[in-house]
Specification:
2 copies of one chain form a homodimer. By secondary structure, chain A is α/β, with parallel strands linked by helices. The first copy, chain A, contains 14 helices and 17 strands. Chains A and B meet through helix 2, strand 2, helix 3, strand 10 and helix 10 of A and helix 2, strand 2, helix 3, strand 10 and helix 10 of B.
């Protein structure tokens, strides 16, 4: 039997637009990976009547209700009270939750005010989701065929509590086991991937296959239901194999976080270092690498050469090359990457020079034209990108940086580059 | 009379978690600035029954319903059909919308397929919101005291259509005029601002004052309702004046986009240039500056010195200083900023060295400790930040970069720095 879920987010800050409901996005992805259909998201403020009405409605149309937010220590935090009331349960004190909170405050070295104890009350008979990432515990219970799960609102806590507390609870609801595997592709648009797979995807029921578009990338998620883990794995394996055969080296990883994370691990495994020389990307490539914890082991540094003087004086790009070819050109991309490799003392260097927009450059080059170069021992590779103006400045920049990561990944794994 | 709104987002991609409902956040902010209360957000898939049920419910509890999404050319795009049906209107062909679409496709140089004409139908008697940012027009009509507005789903289109089409429509619903003014503060936490203003804010009815937390910043929004624009302005002015008196130079701008945008404009006005030397921020500062169109007029470039060798060889930080003081120290921050100023040939240079986390550095410096330096003609200023581990890696980095922008802003406007 397939379950259907409704997500209810509680918080006036969502209705004022102070934050986006990213919890709903995260939970929707996670539920979809568990084979649970999400039919509604609802957002209400910190208002007892409207929350009550939303819950009463949800229980008529979903058999899994997940609330986010409203579990904190202030008088605005009503979720547990209202849910307990709607489902006819008392709130009871959970000593373990209280002890964990006391411990949490000791660790961060702040006094625990009395109102925090409010968070230690949970509906009677509920399974308590102890919170190792904050103070408010969550919980889950079943009443009349409806499963109610309550999770804290702050996105970091919500994500961890879902993954480590709610997912095990929800897995027990399904017959057998549901497993997902996510393949990440770079170098083919979502519509191209979808066009190629549409008929097969529509014909599949177990496992299912769904494409998710990212900026310049596609994620293909295979989800299988089996009597046990081995059975689900056995359903996924042939689909993965077929996709790998079809898309080959466009697939850069399975169950990975990002292209740059894959690159970081390749560099670490091979004991090699990376540097960057960025014109149009303006530091974005270095920023994305250094977003990753542990990047200092492989990333030596970068130069943001936003002017020709910096390209010449810091990276050593010859002035006559800049004059003759223009800053946005293949020879300058090459010279930037090779200069960065020398100046930064790294094994591989990526360079980017192009027109991010909104306007053409002073030589009339179109928006979206970017040269990306990889300087490696004994060889420099260049790609030319023409993204056109529809991507916008941030899209042009993001995709260019991703191409750089992809070029380095391909070199490190002994693959030829796609473009010239 | 105050209006109450419900937002209905239509799209299976939201229920699968492929995207977050950022349209709802944008609209909620915009409606709040118009003095319209938002009580519910609802998300449904591309499913006629569930969309119909959501609309029937919304009309019982809101007098402004705004839908986003489902206006496109495919058979999944049901919003106009369902809304027209719920409110008993026929769909009629709008020749201007069709002509604009033909024009749009000519401009981007792609053929217009027949199914696009489906988008040119709108409910009879509706005011058509022509779309200058995409293909699908939106529309608005009133039926039985309920105003229904339909906007396209893609965030860029939704934002532009709201601002230029829906806002003028909604303004006509209110008696008089509603105006907002947004003051941006850097250097004081949201809870501190709120604590200071709470009693006043609660006592205010016209104008109202609301704080919005951003990472490391606060936005204070004053919203007034008046018989005409001058009357609303007259209500806002004394509140703004009082806030400026109270918060002084912590307020960096009114109705501005960001701290870096303010800095860019100050630099442009004064004909000065900026450069960066980044260790723990890893290119983020340069990236944020170059996110801004027009930054090439003032931003010369940057060095991401993620290793001591790059600090020494590219920025000229003396090796014995690095050995003696450690990379995360005030003297090294100073030397990095002064080195960047020299190497990049810029008037002002910002430097960042610190511990972004998740772990302490090899000298045992705590996560969140960052030195930020500004090298200017004749003077170098340094701030020490201690953000603690609760901010997380990306928070530590973002706030450090913002401090740099703030230091440059203060120097350019002749203000002393807050910290030493």
């Amino acid at each position: 039997m397939s379950h259907s879920a409704e997500l209810i987010a509680v918080g006036t800050e969502l209705l004022l637009g102070e934050i986006a409901n990213t919890d709903a996005q995260m939970l929707s992805q996670g539920l979809s990976a568990l084979g649970i259909n999400v039919y509604y998201h609802t957002v209400v403020g910190d208002n007892p009547q409207r929350l009550r009405a939303a819950v009463e409605l949800a229980r008529t149309r979903a058999d899994v209700i997940i609330t986010t937010g409203g579990l904190g220590p202030t008088c605005d935090d009503l979720t547990k009270n209202i849910l307990a009331e709607c489902f006819g349960r008392k709130l009871v004190y959970n000593a373990e939750a209280a002890a964990r909170m006391e411990d949490f405050f000791r660790r961060i070295g702040r006094p625990m005010t009395e109102n925090n104890y409010q968070q230690a009350y949970v509906p009677e008979g509920a399974e308590v989701f102890q919170n190792d990432w904050g103070t408010a515990p969550g919980c889950a219970f079943e009443e009349g065929g409806v499963h109610v799960l309550m999770l804290p609102g702050p996105p970091g806590e919500c994500r961890a509590m879902f993954r480590h507390r709610a997912v095990p609870y929800l897995r027990r609801l399904s017959q057998g086991v549901i497993l997902s595997r996510s393949l990440r592709l770079f170098g083919l648009g979502e519509s191209a991937v979808e066009a190629e797979l549409r008929d097969e995807m529509n014909a599949m029921t177990n496992p299912t296959l769904a494409p998710y578009a990212k900026i310049g990338e596609v994620e293909l998620r295979i989800t299988a239901r089996g009597a046990d883990e081995a059975a689900a794995q056995a359903l996924i394996a042939p689909v993965e194999e077929e996709l790998r055969e079809r898309f080959g080296s466009l697939i850069y990883g399975a169950d990975v976080d990002s292209l740059e994370q894959v690159l970081l691990e390749l560099l670490r495994d091979r004991g090699l270092t990376l540097g960057t020389a960025e014109s149009c990307t303006g530091g974005l490539t270095a920023k994305r690498m250094t977003d990753l914890a542990g990047s200092s082991a492989v990333f030596r540094g970068g130069v943001v050469s936003y002017t020709n003087e910096v390209k010449r004086d810091v990276l050593g790009v010859p002035q006559d090359l800049l004059d003759r070819e223009g800053a946005v050109s293949e020879p300058v991309a090459r010279a930037m990457a090779e200069g960065a490799r020398r100046v930064l003392g790294c094994d591989l260097a990526l360079s980017f020079t192009g027109v991010a927009g909104p306007d053409r450059d002073d030589r009339g080059n179109e928006v979206g034209l970017v040269y990306v170069a990889l300087a490696a021992p004994g060889e420099t590779r260049v790609r030319v990108l023409r993204n056109g103006p529809t991507r916008g400045r941030s899209g042009v920049r993001h995709i260019a940086a991703s191409h750089g990561f992809d070029m380095a990944r391909r070199w490190l794994t002994g693959l030829p580059d796609r473009d010239k």
